[in-house]
Amino acid sequence: MLEQVREQALSVLWNLSCDERVRTKIAELELVQVLLATVDSEGEAEKEAAVGVLANLSCSPCNHTILTKAGVIPKFVSLSA
Q1: Residues 40, 45, 49, 50, Cα dihedral to 10°
Q2: 10 Å Cβ neighbour count for 43?
Q3: Domain membership of residue 9 as a residue range
Q4: Based on the structure, what is the number of domains in the chain?
Q5: What's the pTM value of the predicted model, to 2 decimals?
Q6: pLDDT for residue 16
Q7: Disulfide engineering: 56 pairs with which of 10, 17, 33, 75, CB 3.0-4.6 Å?
Q8: Is 80 exceeded by the pLDDT of residue 81?
Q9: For 48-68, b where at least 16 C-beta lie within 10 A, e where not — what string?
């Protein structure tokens, strides 16, 4: 049940992050770190939604520094290896 709630919450963030104005509000270092931790979780739907949010955040150049500081690049490189 808790996994489904997390999945729904992440899906809401994913949808909201499509909007440029909201995207900049979502991109806080602490939230990005939580999203990265979710990428390591066991739930595939949760991972997909977290990566979707991070992908949308990366569409805004103003978020690049936050994403880099949070460690998104090494995390995604290790996922693709």
Answers
A1: -10
A2: 16
A3: 2-80
A4: 1
A5: 0.92
A6: 96
A7: 17
A8: no
A9: ebbbbbbebbbebeebeebbe
